[in-house]
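How a chain folds remains the central question behind the approach discussed here. This step matters because it turns folding into a mapping between discrete strings. The sequence in question and its structure tokens are set out directly beneath this paragraph.
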Amino acid sequence: HVTVDNAIPYHVMGNRQDGPSTRGPSNSRTGGFGGGSIPRGMWHSVGGGESGFATPDPEDPNIIWSSASGSGARGGIVVRFNERTRQFRQVEVWPETTGGWPAAELKYRFQWTFPLLISPHDRNTVFVTSQHVHRTSNGGQSWEVISPDLTTNDKSKQGISGGLTPDNIGVEYCCVIYAFDESPVRPGVFWAGTNDGLLHVSRDGGQSWTNVTNNVPDLPPLGVVRNIDASKWDAGKAYVAIEHHQQGNFEPHVYKTDNYGQRWTKIVDGIADSPLSYVRSIHEDPVRPGLLYLGTENALYVSFDDGARWQSLMTNLPASPMYWLVVQEHFNDLVVGTYGRGFWILDDLTPLQQLTPTVASSDAHLFAPRSAYRFHNVTSPMSMPNDPSVGENPTYGASINYWLGSVPEGRPTLRISDTAGRTVRTLSGTKTAGLNRIWWNLRGEPSQQIKLRTTPLYADWVDLGPERWRSGGGRISVLQPPGTYTVTLEVGGQEYSQQLEVLKDPNSEGTIADIEQQLTMVRQLRDDHDTVAVAINRIEWIRRQLYDLKPVLRDRPGLESIIAAADSLDEKLLGVEKKLIRLTTTGTGQDGVRWPTMLAGKIRYLAGAVATADFPPADQHREVHQVLAERLARYTAELDQLLSTDVAAFNERIRAGNLAPVIMEP
């Protein structure tokens, strides 16, 4: 199973065989702004056992209820875990060990994966199920039974397990309530399904129960009711997944009712017909009525029409049993618990929720985006390299989704604008017919690229590449502040716009005023870096021309003095450029410790230091910035002087020799 809490970012909880219930982050925030991994060390036990559920309190993610059974934990163990103390209280319904006992002789039959549900109407009310429904409202201090035995109670199916050698683990029982849910719409509307094929509903908080099994069409007997999902829109509506594979029946059995089980409709059209078609879990979308998700023994499906037709939602999922599905409503993610292939998250269900027939028939459509958090890094736990159990972080930033009715001629572009209408970023989109998704990393346009058109000093062997330039180092791209932005899709000569909200990291101790101070300096440093880049690029452009000119001059007699002048000008330009950038960089990995960092690198370093989390610049940041700004002014003045005197004079000389002058701007 899998559950999620309401933390930001949220945690994923579940169980694995021969281990405890565990909790881990959906986003580790340890990978910087490029994604990164979720180390195994960020997962930890929350009590419970290898099966059942680990269910967080909807208002306090530090409180987690776990159900547990297993070879080391007999019967219906329930624990209440507190993340603050990393300790749990054992509040088992009936703490009498069941190890070695057949089901028929027990007071309560708790199966291996019995349900645990926190009421959607009262976080202090918790339900678990044996053959009865049990309820606590005092943290497990006491439990009350609120149902009769809702199973067939067939004693012939409750005997000793095994032949010559009994194998009574104390959890593998028939005739138990295997699925349970309460209507989110109306308190006290309960749905219960058993692993011997029965369905019951109560509309009065458990005072009376109605067996609605015979109302289900085309339902073989003795099926396992895998899960029931009470509708979020209608108190009388529910969806149920039932399977019979242990009886050799591999057909899908999925049903819905909208009148408290008086009438059921089978909804299986589109599910592949195979020995792995039996169903495991069904879940209703919390935003769009009629949007459903379904897991079978080997596939994930989606329906846009309340189950009338299913289609594959596998994308890059491995074929595996899709045991449990849940939507994390704040982030709008679909989280899938598989058997044997871990937890998987489909980030941002927005386009599925907004994909109407009108949208699907349009030439293009830009979906309203979900809000994006401007997260900052946290420190990483110790971890081993090449750990096969690490998870994958979601892509950083804002998910932008759009629909294309057909493949357009040109490539779509997306423009991000701030409230003043200024374009902060332009992105190139994909052009697949159907749904398209790109991510904006919440950064503005990067600073100007430094293009070195000459080889490093003392390293003529470095290849400049087919375009005859190499990178002069990193670029500065400003993380944009929290606020409202406009996303504009441009495709096929048309524009489509939506608003995007960028939210402050709620884990940050910085204020909006702190962020504004920080961004003011980072923007100044970005501008400074652009000034440096322009100066370096002008110098490199001129030096490249001088180097290319010299072989031409050598082929013509009488121009030795111009060659000497070119060498002299190159030395003067180098004198300025060496102050702006390290010209000995070869890219072989040790440049940073062999040669000093010059002005461009110092500006980038300071920008990174200032942009750490949401803190305003420290006094020393401002002091260093002042020093660097003074150097920049001095060096650019030197270059301007060179361009207006020495380069201009050189151009006069080569014009006199009937040669084209050196171009000063790239």
Residues 375 and 505 are 5 Å apart (CA to CA).
